[in-house]
Prior knowledge:
mainly alpha; 78% helix
Amino acid sequence: MAKRLPNPLGAPAELAGALRVLPKIAENTRSMAHDTKALADLKRDMAAVAERTEGITTMDARMSNIEATMPVLVDVQRDLAMVPEIIARLDERISRLSILLEELSQSVEGLQRSITPLGRLAGRLPGASKPARHEPGVERDPRAR
């Protein structure tokens, strides 16, 4: 195959084709210049967004702490749900204890009333000590000390 000779007229045709694309390149360059000017505003706005969202890291740390304590909080919540039942049982037991204490108090008073005459009787026996000051119904001689 023989070598092809370059077409001397082909170079201007390629040049003319390239020159036809230049207006489109210029138009695209103007559009890029306009868009590039907006980057400065965008950079300023992004800085403001970053400044306003600084608290998110603090909130994230707090949320992590809350998340870590959730199992404990769930256990506490279960225990707190049982508090009314426990208080009701305690109230019932305190009521029963109050009744028992009242009965005991009455028994002690009855026992004291029944023992007092025996104490007086024992005080009259020979060799008995003097009656105690706190015994009801026993009058002491003011001269005896």
